[in-house]
Amino acid sequence: MAKRKILLCLAHMSGNEMKYIEEAFADNWVVPLGPNVNGFEADLEQFVGEGKHVVALSAGTAAVHLALIALGVGPGDEVICQSFTFCASCNPIKYLGATPVLVDSEPDTWNIDPELLDRAIADRIALTGKKPKAIVPVYLYGMPAKLREVMAVADKYGIPVVEDAAEGFGSRYAGHVCGTFGQYGVLSFNGNKMITTSGGGALICADAESKNQIMFYATQAREAYPYYQHEHIGYNYRMSNICAGIGRGQMTIAAEHIRHHQHIAALYKEAFANVPGITFHENPSPEFDSNYWLNTIVLSPDLKVKGEENAYSQTVSGAIGGAGSTVHAATSAHTACEPNTNVEAMRMALAAEGIESRPLWKPMHLQPVYADAPAYTNGVSENLFKTGLCLPSGPWVTDDDVAFIVDCIKQNIAQ
Ligand SMILES: *Cc1c(COP(=O)(O)O)cnc(C)c1O
Questions:
Q1: For residue 29, which of 57, 215, 241, 258 is within the disulfide window of CB 3.0 to 4.6 Å?
Q2: What is 353-393 written as a DSSP string?
Q3: Cβ neighbours for 45, distance < 8 A, ≥ 6 positions apart
Q4: Are 280 and 272 a contacting pair, CB within 8 Å?
Q5: CA–centroid distance, residue 182 to ligand 1 (Å)
Q6: What is the spatial distance between Cα 230 and Cα 163, in angstroms, rounded to a whole number?
Q7: With contact defined as beta carbons under 8 Å apart, do 96 and 90 qualify?
């Protein structure tokens, strides 16, 4: 019997997605505007609340890019970005010819360290004579950052915040939805995120005027003339009406999906509570309400795992994981900074059982492509990268799957 693969996080089309797609086809609304785009934006505005306005876009990365454009980021500017993240938080800073300033995390939430942020800003002002143009905190695996402290630092210096809530859809901090604290909030609807539009994203804006400005840049910056008149450089970043139809369907089951991620988290938390050497990452206090997009554990460096001697014995090529694949083959089995051998051995042991797991994001300050970026580090994200592992989460993962995954992990601890 072929065993089912248990993947990290996979789209789950359990809403009425097809109804909206069929409507789009029936009415020939197959362009990047139309009733589904408007309807999806209205659904998102209701979901995030706080009187915010939302623009549906082609990707979360596009949302980061447009937020920075709206804040006037350009060549010669600096933008502060959480170092411990996926490259999409940071790359748009480079698209604009600006310099990312990378700031490390604190150990409770794994997100940007407010004290280090404060020090970094003071240092940049002293060094360059001007303030960074924006601050980009990230909500890794759904966990909110220490937003009260982060916003206090941002307010102290008067620097706008672009929240990268791509992984934090529906997470809450002090009762408010993540993405509604800063001047802009980024959402992603990629195939492996909390909800999907197959590919897409959105930008949460403070008011109708800033939504209008984002729409302008997302639709090739076209001026209001009968012919094509351009006075600014624009982008083709609007969401298609087909994708938005998927999004409307997904919104009907979004709350249910989030509850399922949180239910899986509770199962992992309980199961790992008395496993020495393994720590489940949970909300640090009741103020934090993670969506648990991905559940994560940390393996103590002294935990012995079966097969450690075979870790990193081969280079990786081809598809890695469920949604992502690589087209560049690795040229070596090792890089200058990699997860500990017990983590890699556990990943391989789980893969052999059809269970997908994945190391945590490799911090941007350890990425060769960002070697030149100024970085303010404290060792937290590097240590987490070396010891952490993401586990299967989401609507496809059953209670039995969690029991099986936990059992496999325990079986692979060497006595
Ligand atoms: C997924 C993700 C993005 C980008 O979203 P896309 O829709 O894939 O472009 C940005 N930031 C973080 C932290 C993400 O995980």
A1: 241
A2: TTB--BPPPPPGGGSGGGTTS-EE--SHHHHHHHHEEEE--
A3: 52, 53, 54
A4: yes
A5: 17
A6: 30
A7: no
Cα of 257 to ligand 1 centre, how many Å?
A: 19
Q: Ligand 1, residues 95, 169, 186, 193: which to mutate, most atoms within 8 A of Cβ?
A: 193
Q: What is d(CA 205, CA 199) in angstroms, rounded to the nearest whole number?
A: 20
Could you please report the per-residue DSSP string of 15-43? SSHHHHHHHHHHTT--SS-SHHHHHHHHH
Report the alpha-carbon distance of residue 136 to residue 68 in Å, rounded: 10
Question: What are 172's strand-pairing partners?
Answer: 177, 289
168 CA to centre of ligand 1 in angstroms: 10
**How many CA atoms lie less than 13 Å away from 298 in the CB half-sphere?**
16
Tell if the pTM clears 0.90, that is, is over it: yes
Cβ distance 14 to 24 under 8 Å? no
pLDDT digits (tens, 9 = 90+) for 50-89: 999 999 999 999 999 999 999 999 999 999 999 999 999 9
